[in-house]
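// run 5 | inverse folding | seed 20
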């Protein structure tokens, strides 16, 4: 039944917008696509794509530095290659966020995966030209960054639009588990690649160029799986997406008079002064609910989420950049105690993947225990502790046991922080189109991975304490900001209204409570004093009521 569900209303291939004046929502199709939301017929493709993408990423990470040494480069070029990959992620997140909003999900994913195929081939082709091949590797990693950044933006936007907000964290945990399996298997595949060495005429594959060819094969599998098995839910049937404001039907005959508009606006302002966790939305007029649902996300909360994401990704960028150089420092350039062989780096990253997997599995079980805000705060505190443990209080002396403990804590911090921040952000943006919003938050994460490799490598040459100390201080900033601005991180009004409507529908059907309740956070609700609607002119008020020019909380 699930696999037989087809897109009865076809969207234009390059136009993801649906004109509400010509398309009506069929009640039968509403039920079909509601079942598809909970179906694994499309989720399994997401899991497969994320798994293969992470295998591709983790194949390269431990072997990138030895591969680049073939071209006679130093650590600065390593930082450059790591940074250009993140620049690709930054641009890819934004670019494919816009492509997603302007086209279908499938088309967005096809073009994104195609970029990954090209980048993977260029990465391997660089090995054939020892003189200038390093720039092919450089270009290949940039295009691969476009691929991974775009894929993340597309998938997170689709999940935000199609999945119930309270199931969002669970879905992200599932994707995280798939990602971690890829991270765990990647180094294993990398070790296997170390034994590959053959030649066919002028074409040869060795332990380093084989990585790119494996990645190209993975992109082909992803493309075919998406093409043949993925069933897309049309935009007009996605529960988390309101109608496009630019295409809303304008019917002057249905417009209320200005006094009624002012009444709706005034009532909405009154509602915004209450704690959304305890307010009874069932008593509200539908026009007020509609008004609140279209309010733009709290901009201060959006900025706080971006900062949280930025600092978590910085912690990850530092870890992925310096782990191999500092743990395999056989010439004692950075420390006098960490001089293990290259295989030790593979073991560390494999352990990191295993810990991340345990984190996501645990998160899936405990995600209902408390709010996303509390989980985000916990992840920031763990990041602070992890990098504090890594500080070498004795110059050039980092005990191996302490290094491993700190590494493990940070390995748990990133997947926890990334997952819960995305879940928190999806609730914060409400029913607004997620392509651009998710593109921006992932682009912010990419910024850290652009800057992180450079500053961490440069600071490492001064002292590992400088690298780890700055990272710990950034997490401390994270904790302080979250505590100061906790009241701006509440979910969008549409989230609470949807819960109230589900409760009301369940009662009408005689099922009692739907069992869906907002999770409590560490903060009490305290509306920002400058949170207000822009109500300067009556004409503006009327436009707002009709869905135009709606201003959010500042």
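// decoded
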């Amino acid at each position: 039944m699930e696999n037989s569900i087809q897109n009865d209303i076809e969207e234009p291939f390059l136009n993801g917008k649906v004109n509400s004046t010509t398309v009506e929502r069929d009640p039968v199709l509403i039920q079909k696509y509601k079942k598809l939301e909970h179906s694994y017929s499309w989720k399994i493709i997401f899991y497969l794509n994320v798994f293969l993408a992470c295998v591709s990423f983790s194949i390269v990470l431990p072997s990138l530095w030895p591969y680049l040494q073939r071209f006679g480069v130093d650590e600065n070029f390593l930082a450059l290659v790591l940074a250009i990959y993140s620049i690709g992620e930054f641009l890819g997140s934004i670019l494919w966020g816009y492509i997603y909003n302007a086209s279908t999900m499938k088309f967005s994913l096809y073009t994104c995966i195609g970029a990954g195929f090209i980048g993977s081939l260029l990465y391997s082709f660089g090995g054939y030209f020892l003189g200038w091949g390093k720039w092919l590797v450089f270009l290949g990693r940039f295009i691969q960054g476009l691929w991974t950044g775009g894929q993340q933006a597309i998938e997170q936007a689709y999940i935000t639009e199609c999945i119930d907000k309270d199931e969002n964290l669970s879905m992200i945990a599932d994707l995280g588990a798939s990602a971690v399996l890829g991270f765990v298997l990647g180094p294993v595949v990398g070790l296997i690649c170390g034994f590959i060495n053959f030649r066919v005429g002028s074409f040869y594959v060795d332990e380093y160029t084989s990585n790119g060819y494996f990645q190209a094969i993975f992109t082909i599998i992803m493309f075919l799986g998406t093409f043949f098995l993925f069933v897309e839910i049309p935009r007009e049937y996605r529960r988390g997406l309101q109608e496009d404001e630019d295409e809303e039907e304008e019917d002057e005959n249905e417009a209320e008079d200005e006094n009624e508009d002012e009444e709706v606006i005034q009532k909405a302002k009154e509602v915004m002064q209450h704690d959304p966790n305890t307010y009874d939305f069932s008593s509200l007029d539908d026009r007020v609910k509609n008004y609140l649902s279209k309010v733009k996300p709290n901009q201060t909360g959006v900025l706080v989420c971006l900062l949280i994401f930025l600092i978590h990704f910085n912690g990850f960028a530092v870890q992925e950049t310096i782990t191999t150089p500092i743990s395999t420092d056989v010439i004692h350039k950075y420390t006098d105690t960490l001089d293990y062989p290259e295989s030790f780096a593979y073991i560390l990253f494999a352990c990191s993947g295993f810990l991340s997997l345990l984190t996501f599995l645990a998160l899936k079980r405990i995600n209902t225990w408390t709010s996303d805000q509390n989980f985000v705060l916990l992840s920031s505190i763990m990041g602070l502790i992890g990098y504090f443990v890594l500080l070498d209080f004795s110059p050039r002396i980092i005990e191996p046991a302490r290094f491993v403990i700190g590494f493990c804590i940070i390995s748990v911090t990133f997947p926890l922080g990334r997952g819960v921040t995305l879940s928190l952000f999806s609730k914060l943006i409400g029913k607004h189109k997620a392509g651009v919003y998710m593109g921006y938050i992932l682009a912010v994460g990419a910024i850290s991975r652009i800057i992180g490799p450079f500053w961490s490598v440069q600071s490492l040459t001064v002292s590992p304490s400088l690298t780890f100390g700055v990272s710990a201080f950034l997490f401390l900033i994270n904790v302080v900001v979250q505590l100061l601005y906790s009241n701006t991180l509440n979910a969008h009004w549409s989230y609470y209204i949807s819960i109230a409507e589900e409760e009301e529908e369940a009662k009408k059907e005689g099922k009692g409570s739907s069992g869906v309740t907002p999770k409590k956070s560490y903060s009490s609700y305290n509306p920002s004093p400058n949170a207000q609607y822009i109500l300067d002119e009556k004409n503006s008020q009327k436009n707002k009521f009709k869905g135009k020019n709606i201003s959010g909380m500042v």
